[in-house]
Amino acid sequence: MRIDVVTIFPEILQAPLRASLLGKGIEAGHMEVRVHDLRAHGFGKHRSVDDTPYGGGAGMVMRPEPLFAAVEQIEGDPHVVLLSPRGARLDHDGVVRLARHPHLVLVCGRYEGVDERVSEHLVDEEISIGDYVLSGGELPALVLIEALSRYVPGVLGNEASLESESHAAGLLEYPQYTRPPEFRGWSVPEVLLSGDHGAIERWRKEQAERATRARRPDLLP
Ligand code: JBZ
After folding, report:
1. Closest ligand 1 atom to 132 CA
2. Looking at the predicted structure, is the pLDDT value of residue 163 above 70?
3. Dihedral (C-alpha) 28, 31, 35, 41: value to the nearest 10 degrees?
4. Alpha-carbon distance 39 to 135, whole Å?
5. Residue 162 pLDDT more than 80?
6. Which of 88, 89, 99, 161 is the most buried (most CB within 10 A)?
7. CA-based nearest residue to 110, from 144, 63, 54
């Protein structure tokens, strides 16, 4: 899978893309991520990429020309995604669907938004990671890249652990414990120390259903 990111803040993306499992997957060549500085296509001494909104109003709007130039200089036939608060909310099914595209371009919005001609004629779809206010699409792009990386063979490392995870299975995870068996008087549930794998499996299923009912009833069938 190949991902190109277009942003005025490449430095927000760089360190997270090098770290952790994701960084290793990229380093190993399972996934290719390139970050493009939108200001390379900006106007004037300050390489400006924004301007005041027609019709008036507060804030600035991203001009179309730098965004079209940045995306159109990327070779291939990518699926172009704009990270935007006006986008469809990202969920597990959305990640799986986007992961089927071999080549994505992620365009990070900034300022008060992007010129509507970008949405209409450059971008294939708009995605939001959730209903809270952010300053730009860079962190959402990272969230999407990490979520996508789990569906790229080789990046996760442990393919078997994918399917059992929450959201993939439609339930929250059961509670996990590790050593010590007692901490400040709080004990690990006896069944987990019993060695009875059937009983452990039943307990975990029951706990996953209980947690989902209490915390995320919207996930239940
Ligand atoms: C996003 C103007 O740039 C923005 C601002 C907020 C924002 C995004 C881009 S993407 N929020 C989200 O995923 O919710």
Report:
1. 14
2. no
3. 130
4. 18
5. no
6. 99
7. 63
One-letter amino acid identity for 213? R
Q: How far is the CA of 136 from the centre of ligand 1 (A)?
A: 5
Instruction: Pull the structure tokens for residue 147.
Output: 């979520």
Taking the CA of residue 131 as reference, the ligand 1 atom at the shortest distance is: 14
Mean pLDDT, range 124-133, rounded to an integer = 98
* 127 CA: nearest ligand 1 atom: 13
What's the confidence (pLDDT) of residue 48?
98
Name which residue sits closest to atom 12 of ligand 1, judged by CA. Answer: 128
Given a cut of 90, whether residue 21 has pLDDT beyond it is: no
109: Cβ below 6 Å to ligand 1? yes
Pocket flag, ligand 1, residue 134 (CB < 6 Å): yes
Pocket test for ligand 1, best of 49, 118, 135, 143 (most atoms within 8 A of CB): 135
**Neighbour tally for 31: CB within 10 Å:** 20
Q: What average pLDDT does the chain have?
A: 94
Tens digits of residue pLDDT in 67-80: 999 999 999 999 99
pLDDT at residue 209 is higher than 90: yes
If you average pLDDT over residues 150-156, what whole number do you get? 83
At residue 89, what is the residue type? R
Q: Where are the beta strands (DSSP E) in the chain?
A: 2-7, 32-37, 50-51, 61-62, 79-89, 103-108, 125-128, 182-183, 186-187
Contact 11, 113 (CB under 8 A): no
Which pair of structure tokens corresponds to residue 67?
Answer: 């965004």
CB of 23 shorter than 6 A to ligand 1: no
